[in-house]
Amino acid sequence: MKVGKYDIPTYRLHPYLVEATKKLFENFKFEEAPNLLTVAQLLDHKTDKSGGFLTKIADMRSYGLITSRGIKVTDLGRRLTYGETDEEKNQAFKETLLAIPLWKELYSKFGKTLPTSNFWAQLGKIAGLEAPDAQKVEENVKKAYLDDFQYMKEEKKPEAEGSKLSDQTRIDTSTAKPPEGLEQLTLGSNIKVWLPKGDVEAAKKAIQLIRLYSGIEEES
Question: Would residue 143 count as lying in a domain?
Answer without folding.
Answer: yes
